[in-house]
Design goal:
The complex is a heterodimer of chains A (158) and B (500).
Chain A: H1 2-26, E1 30-31, E2 34-35, H2 39-66, H3 77-98, H4 100-115, H5 120-141, H6 152-155
Antiparallel strand pairs in A: 1-2
Chain B: H1 2-15, H2 18-36, H3 42-53, H4 58-83, H5 92-103, H6 107-131, H7 133-141, H8 145-162, H9 167-182, E1 184-185, E2 192-193, H10 207-225, H11 239-251, H12 253-268, H13 273-287, H14 299-315, H15 317-323, H16 329-340, H17 347-352, H18 354-383, H19 390-409, H20 412-430, H21 436-458, H22 472-483, H23 485-499
Antiparallel strand pairs in B: 1-2
Helix pairs in contact in B: 1-18, 2-4, 2-18, 3-4, 3-16, 4-5, 4-6, 4-14, 4-16, 4-18, 5-6, 5-14, 6-11, 6-12, 6-14, 6-18, 7-15, 8-9, 8-13, 8-21, 8-22, 9-21, 10-19, 10-20, 12-13, 12-14, 13-14, 19-20
Classes of the chains: A mainly alpha (158), B mainly alpha (500).
Chain lengths: 158, 500
């Protein structure tokens, strides 16, 4: 937990520095028409750097004194989280090819069957009915075009 | 007064036409569903429907859009209380005490309390909208940029000083949100900021996408970590629950009044339902004699934020309709609908389109009263939407989240942002970085920056402009005291402790 805490505050610090650098590029002083573009972000960036620096040292002090503390995730949790993160990322990636609804059908089917161990019948029903009804509702009734991907337009032709 | 009443009667004539009544009921039911589903929020629920309402007459169309909002305001708390999953950002505060109370065996009472508070807040907001809108608008007109900025400082200070989490981490997440809001085109000069030469960052970050990621996905990751056991609390609302809820509403008049007034103020100044609910929760907790009970299922901890959220929601219509300044993000989307119909919100709308304005106001009365009875009667049914096995509804939520994230701006990159925000939300929760102030900063970022820059221009660069009398000074001083409260409180204890 403390290790992750140190890392996150360190990343915030880096983030703040990146923001400050760009603000300096934009100008953070008083320009011709009032404060320049970088004015607000500059102070935000400085604030992030200072606050996260204090958090960083606070946690580091605690780490030196009391050790790493509880782990960030309970044992085994990382696996089940990755089982959600990876398939959903894959769904988004596949969306670029076949469109959101077909990608979602694959994602629903995969997750319910492989991860959730839900029966074939329920899996198939949900994986087909849900995307179909959402497709009809959004794309056809509300006329909100959702991403069709490269080939989605050919696959869903009604 | 009498004129307002006769106008309202005229508006009621419009609203009670069968077609409009049907639209009200459909809108409310859709709104409650939108409110129940995490990730599908009021703002995108309304945005998604805009293409649909274009075919309707203007009054009916705007009634439908606003009904989504009122319904979502009611519905958001159902899942907050029963599932600990806020269906809406403004229902996050409802999880603080609503879920503990439900878990402690009184889910029905928690729901009734929330709905009653919603009802009172809503009706008060609509009442103000009806009778005091012109007067209040006059006061708000006196708000300069310095005052707007001071009010925002006050809101964010409340997070830092009264939030209860690590004040420094709160500051980091507020600043992080503000920075994300600043990415993309500079609202004043048009310069590109923090895009680092990339095209994808030019569009900036949309707060709805962030909310979907942080609350929708982040919450899903957390529940997955706990081992897929997100069992919603089953409930029916019995007569005893209603009776107990009513008794508690009367027992905590301070929470109710405070919530309603804060909500009304936040809706109109503008701020929106989400900050209103947090502010009301924070202030009520601070003012309460038994603050220890907060977070463990205190009735007052449900009443205050819920009344505030709905009062803010309804009174957000006040500045929108009188000044053309939406009081909340969802109201901004509704205003977008108004403009599509060629109705320019502002003081002239009252004169030129009185029938529309009063139809809208009358529908707010109707919708909020009807909505109360709808959720009271059917809350368990609406809640059962999420009572499907987790492995089934979880991927469905991710799917709907992806639709929501995409539909905000029709940008594929937003779906990727949503995933990133999901992981961020998980890390934030684990490491005690508060998410809500970050989202709030992201929402109000542009407004805060604009107010600050305008104020500085007015003050010729002197920060003293934020401390000018009569309005900005007390707001700013209060903000500073609350901000440094974590430092002041121990000092005070030390000083006074020695004397005794």
């Amino acid at each position: 937990m403390r290790k992750a805490d140190i890392w996150v505050s360190f990343l915030f610090m880096l983030f703040g520095i990146i923001v400050v650098v760009d603000s300096v590029r934009l100008g953070f002083m008083w320009g011709e028409s009032g404060p320049e573009s970088g004015f607000f972000p500059f102070y935000l960036g400085v604030g992030v750097v200072i606050s996260s620096l204090i958090v960083f040292f606070n946690v580091l002090y605690g780490y030196r004194k009391e050790g790493a503390g509880r782990p960030l995730m309970p044992p085994g949790a990382l696996k089940s989280i990755l089982w959600v993160v990876i398939p959903s990322t894959a769904m988004v990636a596949i969306t670029e090819l076949v469109g959101l609804h077909i990608a979602a059908a694959l994602f629903l089917g995969f997750y319910m069957r492989v991860v959730g161990k839900i029966g074939w019948v329920t899996t198939m029903l949900v994986a087909i009915i849900a995307p179909l009804s959402l497709y009809i509702t959004f794309d056809k009734l509300f006329l909100i075009p959702l991403p069709a991907g490269l080939w989605g337009g050919y696959l869903l032709r009604f | 007064m009498m004129e307002n009443l006769s106008n309202l009667a005229m508006g009621l004539d419009v609203v009670t036409q069968p077609y409009n009544l049907m639209v009200i009921v459909i809108g409310l039911v859709l709104g409650i569903i939108v409110g129940v589903l995490p990730g599908l929020g009021g703002a995108n629920g309304v945005a998604i429907l805009i293409p649909v309402v274009v075919v309707m007459p203007p009054t009916t169309g705007i009634i439908l859009l606003s009904m989504i909002y009122w319904g979502a305001l009611y519905g958001g708390s159902i899942t907050s209380i029963l599932f600990n999953i806020p269906g809406e950002p403004w229902a996050v505060a409802a999880t603080f005490d609503g879920y503990p109370m439900a878990k402690g065996g009184r889910p029905g009472k928690a729901l009734v309390l929330a709905f009653l508070a919603h009802g009172v807040g809503a009706i008060f907001g609509v009442f103000v909208l009806t009778f005091f809108a012109p007067i209040l608008a006059e006061i708000a007109l006196k708000f300069g940029p310095a005052e707007v900025f001071a009010v925002m400082m006050l809101t964010f200070s409340a997070f830092v000083g009264l939030g209860g989490k690590s004040p420094l981490k709160t500051v980091v997440s507020i600043l992080f949100g503000f920075i994300l809001a600043a990415v993309g085109m500079d609202i004043v000069s048009g310069e590109l900021r923090m895009t680092y030469g990339t095209v994808v960052l030019m569009g900036g970050f949309n707060f709805v996408v962030a909310v979907i990621g942080l609350f929708g996905l982040g919450e899903i990751f957390l529940t997955v970590e706990e081992g897929l056991k997100v069992e919603g609390i089953k409930t029916k609302i019995g007569l005893k629950d209603i009776w107990d809820g009513m008794k508690d509403i009367i027992r905590y008049p301070k929470a109710l009044i405070m919530g309603t007034l804060i909500g009304c103020w936040m809706g109109f100044k503008p701020g929106g339902a989400t900050p209103a609910s947090f502010m009301a929760y924070g202030f009520t907790k601070q003012a309460s004699a038994n603050a220890d009970e907060f977070g463990k299922g205190a009735s007052a901890g449900i009443i205050a934020p819920e009344a505030a959220a709905h009062a803010a929601g309804t009174s957000a219509a006040i500045p929108m309709i009188t000044l053309g300044i939406p009081g909340s993000p969802t109201m901004a989307v509704i205003m977008g609908g108004l403009m599509i119909f060629g109705l320019q919100p502002g003081p002239m709308l009252f004169k030129e389109h009185a029938d529309f304005v009063w139809g809208f106001i009358a529908s707010a009365w109707m919708g909020n009263i009807l909505g109360f009875f709808l959720v009271l009667a059917f809350a368990p049914i609406f809640a059962s939407i999420l009572r499907v096995r987790f492995a089934i509804f979880m991927p469905l939520i991710i799917y709907v989240c992806a639709i929501g994230a995409y539909a905000v701006n029709n940008r594929m990159i937003d779906v990727y942002y949503m995933l990133i925000f999901g992981v961020l939300g998980y890390l934030f929760k684990k490491l005690d970085y508060p998410i809500a102030p970050m989202v709030l900063a992201l929402v109000l970022g542009d407004m805060a920056e604009q107010a600050m820059r305008q104020a500085l221009i007015i003050g010729h660069g002197s920060p003293l402009v934020f401390f000018k009398l009569p309005l900005a000074l007390p707001l700013m001083v209060a903000a500073l005291i609350i901000f440094f409260w974590p430092v002041i409180a121990p000092l005070k204890a030390k000083l006074f402790g020695k004397k005794v």
